[in-house]
Design the sequence.
């Protein structure tokens, strides 16, 4: 088989695998995604704030909801220096920080989060100390927690937190991303390791589905959802300036 033929076949297989996972999440996690979106809408109505957090590559779906054209202006990123993103050097430091006990408490104590707010915590494995303690401490502070994680990891791995628990054990709502352990969808003879992760594709879709549900729920209640428009369309900047000004007390990415 020519190299180009094999590449075409692999690219198609990856799309098929990602689509299958998206369909599975849509069909089997739909009720929980709707519940999460409604909780976000409830928080907006009550005057609360909404934050999302993820470490390493799990931060990408969290960041994708913040200051996003077509998204809710009230989505804020809870940032932990050295953990959010892979720009830290060395990149392995971020993974190490996820296992540090006590870091989550320090982050929450210095964050704008308050009782009645919502925190979406994204962690593929849900096994490291940081996401587990983030959920535990947030709920102790009266913050509602939505967890997005792969429940399969709880059956195939052990927790790295002293309690032996996982992120899913400390959430008000859990959305299972259905990502297989190892986060690699393809294998091929001649390649020793599985490859082609799909967690970012699927988790980003989950996050956007939550936000879409929240926007629709607000509209059903007669509330104009505070949505942002693209700055690359005429009038977009003026629209966004108005929305951000109206909700300035609940938006923290401008500070």
Sequence:
């Amino acid at each position: 088989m020519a190299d180009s033929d094999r590449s075409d076949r692999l690219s198609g297989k990856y799309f098929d695998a990602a689509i299958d996972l998206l369909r599975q999440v849509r069909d089997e996690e739909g009720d929980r995604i709707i519940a999460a979106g409604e909780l976000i809408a409830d928080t907006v109505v009550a005057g609360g704030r909404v934050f999302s957090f993820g470490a390493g590559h799990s931060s990408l779906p969290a960041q994708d909801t913040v200051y996003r054209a077509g998204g809710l202006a009230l989505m804020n990123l809870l940032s932990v220096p050295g953990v959010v993103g892979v720009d830290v050097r060395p990149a392995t430091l971020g993974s190490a920080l996820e296992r540090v006990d006590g870091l989550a408490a320090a982050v929450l104590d210095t964050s704008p989060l308050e009782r009645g707010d919502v925190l979406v915590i994204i962690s593929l494995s849900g096994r490291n100390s940081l996401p587990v303690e983030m959920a535990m401490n947030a709920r102790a502070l009266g913050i509602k927690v939505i967890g997005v994680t792969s429940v399969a990891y709880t059956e195939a791995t052990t927790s790295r937190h002293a309690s032996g628990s996982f992120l899913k054990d400390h959430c008000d709502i859990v959305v299972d991303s259905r990502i297989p352990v190892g986060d690699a969808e393809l294998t091929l003879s001649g390649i020793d390791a599985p490859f082609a992760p799909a967690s970012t594709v699927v988790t980003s879709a989950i996050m956007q589905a939550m936000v879409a549900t929240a926007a629709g729920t607000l509209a059903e209640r007669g509330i104009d959802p505070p949505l942002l428009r693209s700055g690359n369309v005429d009038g977009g900047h003026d629209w966004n300036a108005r929305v951000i000004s109206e909700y300035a007390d609940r938006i923290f990415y401008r500070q």
